[in-house]
Structure formats: structure tokens, C-alpha cells
Amino acid sequence: MQTTNTPLPKSRLQLEFELPPERLSRAIDQAVGRLSRQTRVAGFRPGKAPRAVLERVLGPSAILDEALEQLVDQAYREAVRDQQIEPLTSPEVEVTQGEEGKPVLFKAVVQVRPEVQLGDFEHFGFKPEVDPVDETMVEKVVDQLRDTQAHLEPVNDRAAQNGDYVIVAFDGTHNGEPFLGGSSKQMPLVLGENRLYPGFEDHIVGLRKGEDREFDLVFAPDFQVEAMRGETAHFALTLKEVRAKVMPEADDEFARSVGKFEDMAELTADLRERLEANALDRARHDFADKIIEYAAANATIDVPEILIDQEVDVVRDEMRSAMARQGISEEAYLSITGKTEAEIREQVRPQAEQRVKSLLVLTEIAKVKAVEVPDSDVQAEVDQARSRYADDRTMVQYFESERGRNYIRSTFRRSRTVEQLVDEWLDSHPEAPRLRHIEETEGTSPVAVPSAAASGSVEAAEPAILTPSEAAAQAGA
């Protein structure tokens, strides 16, 4: 078999094949055997019908077509494996000569992983920045802990003020007509959070329980509901209930109630230690992000559109998951933003392109740094996935598959590459604060949540070969 490779624009590769006539002869014999076993021919047992009879039943070109399809698949697979080509898509195949007694000639054009030309990724001028921890930050955490033990008490002797929990009934109209979401018989609000309509809660402050108020509200030009932008609505409101949050005193008794602390001094010392550890973790994370951005900015790479499209899908899946956790449906999100799915995809496209570039650059740096991930580490993560996703058999099967294991290996490899770059910088700068390694953080796994099984070709360090017939089968599935 002779092959010639020709690079094409946009990270595509054209493979031209020339196969000797005898390979086609063998493929025809094999095709006769397969079709004879699969085809019922009167007067012949399965597998015994000769070629001439099969061609009368199936058509004159059926056997040659079957032989060429199998031969093209086989030759393409051999070339991809022998030449260590990393295809990102199924090939576009054109058979230019497929006659018995002559060499078989065909072309296969396939999208491949783009070439990455690394620039500088180690000699950067920035350094980790650790946010200092002061008493105000400690006090804020103490207040948050107090807030978890707070209780609400009815307020009858004063007007409502910011911070109060209130229940209101209101009817809203636009041009004299009710509008969607403009009325409620019992709406709970925390005054000052402005979670309903901007400016709405300002008209509640100063009211006492049982009092009424009417007012007009002009919606902002960028209001989330497009039909109400810049419009004026009229509201009639009744304050039905007012409650104030009462928090416990920050004393030794409180300290003992939130943990094994003897007094407030011990609690605040523990909180300070935790805040300082968190600050170091953030500093390392931000420092790693800057290194990735620096490496990607200095690299030269022509990112294929297919990889960007795949990463757009991943970003959208992440957005849908985040919205689902907040109880927001896809339809509601599109309605609130006033955008179509196509507009959302275009909006996130630059982010997706940058992510793809960063992933490819990190993969190339991993090669330069000879970063490897032992099979034992991959298997350990698969074992954890079986426990972590015990109620999700589909996710477990994904991690157990070759594709899932490739995802684990490549994700670990990139994560460890970044950590190695950080550690090398820290080793050469002993004056810098010690920043904990990401894998020292208890319970941390860089592959805890795969990105929708995942960023397909970018994530797969060793992508499976998809032959022309397999691609056609998947397309028809």
C-alpha cells in the first residue's frame, strides 16, 4: 500500500491511497463469502452461492461495491494507526479507481488535530498574589455563622426597613391591564435585596403592617423581559407581615454552639487560619489561570471550527446544568434574555474558542514536559466514579469506556502540567508563599464532573479511529 499525505488549510489532511490489484481480489473473495452467507438464494445453502448467481440476485456491482467499502475502511484504518494520525472527524472518501485487475486509488480528507507552535510559557513577569486576611473578613464570617442561627420575630411597633423579611400582596397593571408576573397574593421578600423588580422594594420601606400604597414603576431599558423595557407599570400594594431577623450575640456561648471551641478567641483564630488557607488556594488557582492565558497568548494555532462548535456545545450544556440547579428552564432563560439559541451560541463562541486553544496548548506543553499519567491513577478515578455516580449508570459506563478513560487521562495530564509549571516557578522563587498543590485539597478531583462526555476530540488524548463505514452507521443510528 502506498500513501501520500497532503496538508490542507484549516487543519485538514488529504491521504491518497494506491492499493495493489491483488488486495482488491482478496477483498472480492471475502465479499462473496459474506454476501453469500447473508443472502438467501434458491437452490443454494447459505454461504454456497457463487459470485455469478449473487450478482444476478443483488445486482452486477453489489459485490465490487461491498469489497471496495471494506477495503477502503481497512486501508484507512491501517494508515491512521501506522502514521499515528489523530482524526477529529470521519473522513470524506472519494474512490477514483476501483476496477478489477487495476490498482485501487482513493482519497480521504479528514480533519486532524491542529499543529500547535508553542511560544514562551515559562518566563512570565507576574507572580502569585495572595489577598491579606484582616479582622473585618473574620468578623464577616462570624456574622455569617450568626446568621445561620438567627430567628425571625414579628415587628409591630415600627415601619419596615431594609433587612426585614416581609410578605406583601400586590396587583400590577400595564396600560390598565394585568401583565404576566405582575400580581401576587402573598409574596415573601427580604427588603434591600431587590430580587423582584428594581425599585419595587423602595416603596415598601416605611410602611407598617397592614398599610397600603400605590405607585408607578418605570422598568429599565435593559429589563430582562423585553416587552416591559422602558414601560411604566402601576402597582397597588398591601404590607401583610413584617419580621426582623434576630441573631445571637457573638460570645463564648455562641462559639461553643458552632463547634468544639472553648471561646470566641479560639473560634476567630480557627476562622483566620481557614481564611488564610483559602487565600493561598485562590492565589494558586489564579496564578495557574494566568500561566495558561500567557501560554495560549504566545502560541500559534489555527483552531478548527469543528472543535469550537463542540466546545460551544459543552459551554451550553454547562449553562443548562447551572440553570437547572436554579430551577430555570431553557425556555424561560431564552424568554428572560430575549435571545434565540443561535444568538446565545454566538455569544459564547469566543469563550469556547479560547478554551479550545488553552486545552490544545496545555496538551502540547505536556508533551514537552513529558507529563504522564499512570494507568493506576486512571483506574483509581474510574473506581471513584463508580461510587460517585452510583445512581447514574450512563455516567459510570462512560467513565469505564475507552473514551471516558481517555478523558480522565488527558484531564489529569493537563491538570498536572499546569501544577508542574506552578511548582517549577515556586521552586525557583523560594521567597514566594507556599501555595498548596491542587491535589492536596481534600476531595478534589479535576475530573469530578465531565463536560457532557466531554469536549469530544479535544479531550481525547488518544481518539478512536472512526472509519467511513462506522461513521455512516453512526449517522444513520
User: Into how many domains do the coordinates divide?
Assistant: 3
Q: Major β-sheet, in short?
A: 5 strands, antiparallel
Spans of at least 5 consecutive residues with low confidence = 449-477
Q: H/E order of the elements?
A: EEHHHEEHEEEEEHHHHHHHHHH
Number of strands: 9
Portion in beta strands: 15-25%
- Gyration radius, rounded: 33 Å
Helical stretch count?
A: 14
Mean pLDDT value: 87
Distance between the termini: 32 Å
* Helical residue percent band: 40-55%
Structural class assignment: alpha+beta
Choose one word for the global shape: elongated
Précis, in short:
The chain has 477 residues and is α+β, with helices and mostly antiparallel strands. The chain contains 14 helices and 9 strands.
